[in-house]
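Box 3.1 A note on notation
Throughout this textbook, protein chains are presented in two layers. The first layer is the amino acid sequence; the second is a token string describing backbone geometry. Keep the layers aligned when reading.
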Amino acid sequence: MKHFKEMMSLVLGVLKDYRVIITLIAFLLVIMIAGFIANYTKKPPKPKKKKNAPIVVQPQPEAQTEESAEAGEEEATE
């Protein structure tokens, strides 16, 4: 039993050492970055919309109503 306690004391001493903790964190970061790079895939590009020829709409002459005809006459007399 004494041998087990000495062994546990040694293991805890090693695991609590700052160099072991820093090395473990650095190792995990490298492994995570390598896994990300290995599994990285670009998103597929969005399909571009085809540009259709612009539709030219010719303005149709509006039928003059009584109000617009009167307004036109007033502008002409001024």
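The chain has three helices and no strands. The mean pLDDT is 81.
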